[in-house]
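[Meeting: bench + compute handoff]

Bench side (C.D.) handed over the final construct sequence. Compute side (W.E.) agreed to return the predicted structure before the next meeting so the bench team could plan truncations. Sequence as handed over:
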Amino acid sequence: MNQATSLTYTAFLDGHFLSTGPLQKVAVAMLRAHSAQTGGHLLVFSNVSGQSVDLDLRGGEEAVAARYTVAAPTQAPKGRGRPKLGVVAREVTLLPEHWDWLAAQPGGASVALRKLVHEARRNGGNRNRTRQAHERAYQAMSTLAGNLAGFEEASRALFAGDYERLVAQMATWPEDVQAYVQQLAEVPTA
């Protein structure tokens, strides 16, 4: 998913869209919905993973908002690497023959490893992105619609990449659930 959705969450009340955005905003919306309606099933999902998230709604709106406000990132202590360039030193464990091969590469081990990573991302990027989108959508779909008609066939269609069949199997589901699953699955629009 893109950066805008990577830190966002989406809440549902009885299968209907309630709120989306940063966790603080969604938590306050959930508290308001919970206070206004004694019944109803509230669920919140990470838009990155599709997994449901449990929130602590105790206290008033200020307490809930404060609990889920993201603190500004702190300056990391200076360590090895080239922090001004975004280079971070970390440990890599390899066998001796791997180190020998890396050392023999033009530019040394670091350059060779960066090239290998770029190549792997270039070759498998779309496939990995599609797999992650399907897994993310399945996580949310199984919680929101696991007991709805057509769930099993919709799951098969999702993992087969048959988006037309996926949409057809979800036709009787609440519209907001359909839209959210399609968003997480990154279903191409016509």
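W.E. noted at the follow-up: The chain has two domains: 1-71, 82-190. C.D. will use this when planning the next construct.
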